[in-house]
Amino acid sequence: MAITTQNPTPPTAAKHAGANVTRPGDKIFSGLSRGSGILLLVVMASIAIFLTIRAINAISKDHGNFLTTFEWNANANPPVFGIAVLAYGTIVSSIIAMAIAVPIAVGIALFISHYAPRRLASPLSYIVDLLAAVPSIIYGLWGALFLVPHLTGLNMWLDEYLGWTVVFEKEDPQGAARSIFTVGILLAIMILPIITNVSREVFRQVPRMHEEAALALGATRWETIRMSVLPFARSGIISASMLGLGRALGETMAVATVLSAAPILSVHVLDPVGGTFSQNIVAKFGEANEFGRDALIASGLVLFVITLLVNGAARAIIAKRKEYSGANA
Predict the structure, then answer these.
(1) Which domains occur in the chain, in start order?
(2) Where is the ABC transmembrane type-1 domain (predicted)?
């Protein structure tokens, strides 16, 4: 009597058959992820629509040029307001903050990740994390009570030796240092922990083999960092800088505490004049009438657009540089 047996299913076939089975947990996770992404887009679109509707209502009644008028008096009759002064103050203070914070933050991140011994690197990391958790109003109070009085001497020095550049010329050298330059320094201190933390984590992701190969070829520690670490981490450094820039553009309470409420356009960054979008909204919202609030919302729409453009530009730079960073090796 012949006995027939069936051939067992090959392991590879069983493996592929199991791969096509979708588990309930995967479906739930996929749905939640997709729903979260859609919800985020809906929220962003709702904010944009709200700001646009209120902004159009304000701009239609504005008797000045919204983009070039150097005055803000939305409660007047007829109302006149423009965003030129606020855009200038916001952008210049953010540029000053980035120019100061980015090199220092990258240097601190490199020191923690590649130079400092572990017993020193850990406390430094905790200190940086703690600085990132300090509320904005605390930075503002510190800036108003400590930073402003102690920057008078620096302002006098800049006016004396760099006043010929016009940018660092100060009309009243003895005046209080409540200026765009002071705001830039304060913002630099505030965004320093953010850029440092992200850059530090990026540096730690550099493949160890890249660094060991450079050292084996006789490179010094700095040459190893320059040729292996920084190229790999370039896109991460850009992302960290854009995160810091986003906070600098939208910072409110710290700027409002330090900067004088004088929305006047001046190329002299040491003069106590100027303003930013967030600072102007905080200073004028309480006294604004219904139309004045629409005008402030219109300025908020401009800040919203600037932030989107900055983030879009950052994403484009990261995508362009990614293939040269060594991250895909």
Answers:
(1) 69-324 (1.10.3720.10)
(2) 87-314
